[in-house]
Amino acid sequence: MLNNQGRPTRPNTSEQDNSATNTFTGNKALELETPLIFEQGVPGRLGVDMTEPKKVSSRLGNTARSKPIGLPDLSEPQVLRHFVRLSRQNYSIDSGFYPLGSCTMKHNPRINEKVARLAGLGDLHPMQPVSTVQGALELIDDLAHWLKTITGMPAVAMSPAAGAHGELCGVMAIRAAHEAKGEARKRILVPESAHGTNPATAALCGYKVESVPAREDGRMDLEAFSEKLGPDVAGVMLTNPNTCGLFENDVKKIADMVHEVGAYFYCDGANLNAILGRVRPGDLGVDAMHINLHKTFSTPHGGGGPGSGPVVLSEALAAFAPIPFVTHGENGFDLVEHVEGEASNSFGRMKAYHGQMGMFIRALAYMQSHGADGLRQIAEDAVLNANYIRVGLNDMLHSPFDGICMHEALFDDSSLKDTGVTTLDLAKAMIDEGYHPMTMYFPLVVHGAMLIEPTESESRETLDQFIGAMRYLLNKARDGEATYFAQAPHFAPRRRLDETGAARNPILRWTPEEDDPQSDRTLSAAS
Fold this sequence. Notes:
By secondary structure, the protein is of the alpha/beta class. It has helices at residues 37-40, 76-88, 110-116, 134-151, 163-180, 197-204, 222-228, 251-260, 357-393, 423-432, 460-478, 482-487, 499-504, and strands spanning 155-157, 187-191, 208-212, 233-239, 264-268, 288-290, 311-313, 325-329, 332-336, 409-411, 439-440, 450-452, 509-510, 523-524.
């Protein structure tokens, strides 16, 4: 059956499920369908009146547009309803538990948002004269001070735009330090459980990447690492706690071994939330580490631009930090924006301006509202919550590595063997239970991996309900209901895709059924 939009009404094949009922509109009570915004447009239907612009001579020559742009004409209620309906189909940390491992999807306190919108902070422009933004520069300097204090590092680069950008900053600083000594080192060592951006960053900087295997306990094999070290190694890129949710117990020894051959230790700071206030990376021998403000310090994830990845640097790398950076002198705060003077060894500029100001404000508000004792408690509660989940599921899901985990619990798919249910199937069924699925198939060193990170934000009641839902689904899998899982999700706005077909033949652009040759109407549906 098709609804009045010509779309199937998402019938459910289960005869015992009342959701199989079709509706004329395609709506299911408060779950409302919405066509693509381009399909809703009617020529001449505009929510605003605009004055006809004066005719001017075009300077575009033969590059000028010859056809209408093809945007839909819509009334204001249409636009509002369209995006409200889409927003109801989103899953967010504000609507439910978000157990994505390695992502630290914690609550974003509203006080952070309020402060970020204060007049004088929320309306800054990056090209304002320095004399008019003394408060903003002081805020950047204050945040930089606390990042250095928390990590035990003497310097920090504030401009990197995100975690991977921060990795790039750290490796570029390492390369600049070697070049300053006249060394042309060729290799960077990366554990096999590393984030994929680690080897990608090293390769982008011109290094040959060599993978280091893990031991049976999930930590980097020190013997294999030692065999790979040599005078042509520029550094190591290690995540600690690592992507298996385990602390690298030999981290200080690893740092000493790296420094002994004249190389540098880059630490991926994605998992800083697990050791915040408990361990200072600088005390472990780290030379460079990015800090994901959107993870550890609770600034929003994603959205096309708000990422922020400051990089703390050791004394050995501090001189090579990128510009710009804030200085404080007799005449107040200033920005160093040129590779000269005190920045003469800098490897240059990474970003157009000075960093993500909105994220700086939110992160500093988060730090100051928690205080030193609160920041320490963040790590303690995050580790406690992860182990609560580990213990709550350990009799039904197999943990590939023995013992206590750090901030995230890791399971493999061996417990699903012979059930006909895969990690992906289980994740799809979690959607029906109202959960965003955990991180799947990562880290790659664990077969069918399920990586669950509750963060410190979640209450015991939330964790109990999540554990209960997982146990319910696992029992369902053991009871031979593989067909149920193969068809999940049953209640989502859209059923499961043919993912192979979608990947091989993606439809990336919307084209009207009757394409008007006078109009450029072929536009991205994602817009």
